[in-house]
What does this fold into?
Amino acid sequence: MDVRWEEAGWERLTGRTGRRRLPVWDCTVGLVVGDESALLIDPGSCLREGAGVRAEAERLAGRHVTHIAFTHGHFDHVLGGAAFAGAEFYGAVGLDALLSTGGEELRGDAARHGLAEAEAAEAVDLLVPPKHLVSGEWTLDLGGVQVLLANVGPGHTGHDLAVFVPGEREAVFCGDLVEESGEPQAGPDAMPRQWPAALDRLLSLGGEDALYVPGHGAVVDAGFVRAQRATLAARFGVS
It folds into this structure.
C-alpha cells in the first residue's frame, strides 16, 4: 500500500492507477498516471468536489491532469468537469449532444438527489462537453502507458464508456455498467435489453484476471461481473 495515497483517501490499484470513492453518492473517481500526463475518470458531482479531486489527483500524480474521461452522462459523474480547465475531454459518441442540450434535466436530476440548487446550476452552466468522441476504441498514450477507451455500451445509458489500463494487472474502470454497493440502477435512459451484451464486451476486453472498478462500490473480479450480467439478463428477460 502506498501510504501517500492511503492518507489522501485514495485506493492504490496498480502502479499506474488509483481511485477514490467520493462521499454522498459513493461515486468512483479514477486516476491513471503516465510519465508525461494524467487521466482522470469521472470528475465528481459539482465544481467544489471537482476542484478538491483535481488538487488531490495532481498532488498524487506529480503532474497536471491533462485528460478527462466521462464513463456516462449522469450528474454525479460529470458535473465536476468544469474544475479541470485546460484538460482534454473524452466520452462516448453522442454524449456531447446530450450534455449540450440536456442541461436543465441534468440540473434537475442533481437537485432531486440532494445537490444544492446553486451548485447544480453553476456546474451545468460551466459544464464542458467532451470534444473527443469514442465510437469504437481510442488509445491514449500518457507516456509509459497506453490506455484504451472503449465504447462498450449502450447499457446503463446510451453512452457508456469503459477505460482499460494495462499493467501488472489490468484495471478496468466500468462506470455504472457495474455496481457493487447496490443493485445496478436502470433509469429512464437505460437500455436494459442491451446491457448484458455491454458486459460481455467489457469482459472480453478486460479478461479473466483484471481488476474491475465499478462506478459505485468495491473493486470486483470477472466472476462478479459475470454474475451481475446473469442477474441483469434474468431481470430484463434477455439471453
